[in-house]
Amino acid sequence: MQKGSNLKLVVTGLLLGILMSAMDNTIVATSMGTIVSELGNYDKFIWVTSAYMVATMAGMPIFGKLSDMYGRKRFFVFGLIMFLLGSALCGLSQTMVQLSIFRAIQGIGGGALMPIAFTIIFDIFPPQARGKMTGLFGAVFGASSVLGPLLGAYITDNIKWNWIFYVNLPIGIVALFLILRFYKESPQHVRQKIDWWGASTLVISVVSLMFALELGGEKGYPWDGWKIIGLFVVFAVFFVAFFLIERVAKEPIISFWLFKKRLFATSQILALLYGATFIILTVFIPIFVSAVYGGTATNAGLILMPMMIGSVVGSSIGGIFQTRTTFRNLMIVSVITFFVGMLMLGLMTPDTHRWMLTIFMTLAGFGVGFSFSMLPTASMHNLDPRFRGTATSTNSFLRSFGMTLGITIFGTIQSNLMSTKMTNAFKDMAGGGQSSANFSSGNIQELFKSGARSQIPADILHRIVGAMSDSITGTFLLALIPIGVAAVVVLLMGNARIQATPKEAETSVAPEPASQH
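and the corresponding structure tokens:
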């Protein structure tokens, strides 16, 4: 057990690692336009994001299991080193292909940082203190999704895009020093066999699915083409193989017996659903502000601040009250607030006042914030310490998987809605000329260019803005479906709660006999 001031330094190191890895995707997304303009290969820019997310998701359950077997510290340090190496290489990239490869190296490190950090908190804090700490960690995770775009925009506009990667180096070095110097881990770990077949089939299945979802519908990759269908087939075959392997493996990467526990199973489903729906707010609200309200890129980033604040408050409250009531009661507050916030956002129009948008975002952020601290804690509740890494990494994996599915599915929905709305907006416009023809075909980038809006005829601008607004708010309304499913899942969580007892043994149970080796 850590003691004295060293404990604060260890927590600081963990927080820095989480902030760095969680912020990376959003900070890169903000700068992608500039990166494409310098490196070229627009047709390959999608791999920059995909490579990172695939490597991260594939690594989460693997590193979680390895940390259970051989200790948290060595794999958290490994994650930091890989992330820093990838960051340095990304900043030196000369082509889009190089950048994508180096982002995959970053992703390998990111797959170790998030789940292991949460697990270390459970190892070094007694039960009555875990709620507060996971609330703090969840708040950092929520804040990173908003701070990333702001920092990325500032660095890209005022320095150079390479520095969005170099900025990780001082943060990561400090985190590495603090963990190496002050984190004292118990040397007692159970020697176990590594499930290499399970790890291999998991990576192949996840990679195939992500590439199918990312590429599907793009030029040269129609949904009914042999390439996309082939990727889905590969995913299905290797996922089934992974499932079968895990059922007979002596030390599986994902222990499926855990899903027999109600609280664990519901926490994983909620992580998937929350990840899929929250990501669309961080992506589409800035677009709404820029294209509908006509705000600048900086304003589009700043407009997310209320949602960040709401998520931080929600995460903190969820952590504080974990020892005072059940997980289900807190998640009921979460899902109701999230649903109301998303509903209000879905009912917006171009005439909605900015202050109302601020209120709606704050509500949605507050609701989602609970999940950042509640779900990782619920995943590990009443589990033997040697299964905590597996539990929290599975939760992190499914949240990231949900984010990828959400942005892919809802992104496609918004794009199709936009195309339909634009066609309907201009079909009754006679004599619109070349300008209306261009815009009706979906060429709307002029909305995002500084000063370009004033050059668009008022009638055409009104139609474009209306189509953009309707497509985004329509997407928000459809997102109510998975949130509604989440509400049902919350009700199934049971009455489990954290017991504020100083003895770790009183909050741990042995695994099922079939899983003991």
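(Above: one complete record from the training split.) Residues 430-443, 502-517 have pLDDT under 50 and may be disordered.
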